[in-house]
Amino acid sequence: MTYPIRILQATVSNDKGGLTGYICQNYRYIDKSKVQFDFLTYETQLDFQEEFEKMGARFYVVPKPSHFFAYIKALKQIREVNAYGAVHFNISYANWLTLLAAKWVGFQRIIVHSHSTEIDDKRKLVRGMKKCIHHMGKMLMPALGTDFLACSQLAGRWMYPDSILQGKKYHLAKNAINLEKYRFNPAMRKAVRQELGIGENEFCIGHIGRFNYQKNHAFLIDIFYKLLKVCPNAKLLLIGDGPYLFNIKRSVSELRIEDSVFFLGRRNDVPQLLQAMDCFVLPSRFEGLPIVGVEAQAAGVPCIVSDAITRELNINGLVRFVSLRDKDKWVNSIMAYHGFTKRDQLEKLRNAGYDISLELNQLVSFYENIVTSDS
């Protein structure tokens, strides 16, 4: 076996959350003497590109798969000049065009990695069309992929037929994190709250995620408005941006709760901001296994999440799952943590396998086994 093994990762963007966030985090911590990543992207310049190139990565701008033959041509050129151990597709639904293209141009190992459980699009027609593509791709998956990963059992069932789920080529890959970055720190909590202008006795609710259909911010604003009726000193931190940001800001303005809602945008200090929170809220319509939920638990923050999210998220026993049909129950569940004393939770998460150093050792072994079995 020749080291480092080169793996082509598909696909990254300037949106540092979600799939890109997961891929980038893995690259920063993986042992690059054993595994090196190259990246496919649809964007001409990425804000982390220079950093990663200094670590030995290469970036390839390719057409979108909707331009199928141009996509194939670009992929073929990349494969012909590089010896890859595998191409690793991180996907939220079974868009079989990318997998077919990889197979067509001759990739011997095609890793499919499921990160979601639904289609993220508010438009019913588009969502319906993508579901048709997904169901076809799910049936074709055994013929297109060679190795299969999922961030949760629910994400696995969404992406793969039973023949894969019951086979030896299917594995769970936990959304692990650098736990030490999130360790509960009372001094940091106090400093961040002072910086944000949040009083020690005010109840701080937090949410991290793109303003899109999946994350369901309109519902979050509705329940926070109800929460203010019973807890007038509550504050809401909203971290992230996205296509629905303007609409949510307008709703907050119409409800006249601007003084209680903090729009913080994209942030690079999420571990510190989590310290400030008393409760983390995630009313997503669907998720694979949300990394932000793991991060919140590592910071000792109790979580209220939708019952559409896999129960595997409840790592430390401080996660409550609530139906999106019952807003009053959301308010009551959040209020149950009013006055909650946060504690260090790292040992529980480490024992459950969410330490990134341990998980990436397993990922390296996974890549090594693929190359070995292929040679």
Describe the fold and architecture:
The chain has 375 residues and is an alpha/beta fold. Helix content is 42%, strand content 17%. The protein is built from 15 helices and 13 strands. It has helices at 18-29, 49-54, 68-81, 96-104, 124-144, 153-159, 162-165, 186-196, 217-230, 245-254, 270-276, 291-298, 327-335, 346-351, 356-374, and strands at 5-12, 35-41, 59-61, 86-91, 110-114, 147-150, 170-172, 203-208, 234-239, 261-265, 279-282, 303-306, 319-322. It has a seven-stranded parallel β-sheet, with helices on both faces. A six-stranded parallel β-sheet has the order 10-9-8-11-12-13, with helices on both faces. Strand 2 (35-41), helix 2 and strand 3 (59-61) form a beta-alpha-beta unit. The longest helix is centred in the middle third of the chain and has 21 residues, at 124-144. It is globular, with a radius of gyration of 21 Å. It starts with a strand and ends with a helix. The mean pLDDT is 96.
